[in-house]
Design a protein that fits this description.
Length: 147
């Protein structure tokens, strides 16, 4: 009996109307068709993959990095990040990154990750690119023997 009364009461309630017009609306989202495929990658400007312990003792090891882009429109926003490194200019196409290797020992292979996020300021297309860099801390005597 209660169910019947609840059903009758529910039918007396006004029907809720949607707050937006239903006519002319597509039921499927249409993705804009474009031939753009934005890409970005990091170019390492210094080819040094080994550093002498004497260099490490002098202070941070600085590497230079540039983002190379393809099929992405200007203006752009850049955001650089480095694991265990200090990015000197986070928002430019090229930056220097200082790595503190003072805790590294001779023979240690030191690895860090560098990433850059590039965002198109008009369409907000975003590309993130990353790379690993490795530096081998060598003995000063080893470098003297090689030279």
């Amino acid at each position: 009996m209660k169910k019947t009364r609840n059903n009758r009461e529910a039918s007396l309630l006004p029907k809720l109307q949607p707050f937006f017009p239903q006519e002319g609306m597509d039921s499927v989202a249409v993705v804009e068709d474009r031939d753009r495929h934005p890409k970005a990658w990091i170019k390492v400007d210094s080819s040094s993959c080994s550093v002498a312990e004497q260099e490490v003792a002098r202070g941070p090891i600085i590497g230079h990095y540039t983002v190379v882009m393809e099929d992405i429109a200007e203006p752009l926003f850049m955001l650089w990040q480095a694991q265990n490194g200090a990015v000197l200019n986070r928002s430019s196409r090229s930056t220097a990154i200082a790595f503190d290797l003072s805790e590294a020992c001779v023979g240690q292979l030191w690895t860090s990750e560098i990433t850059v996020q590039v965002t198109d300021a008009v369409t907000y297309d975003t590309v993130v690119s990353g790379t690993f860099i490795q530096m081998l801390v060598t003995s000063d005597r080893l470098l003297e023997r090689v030279a």
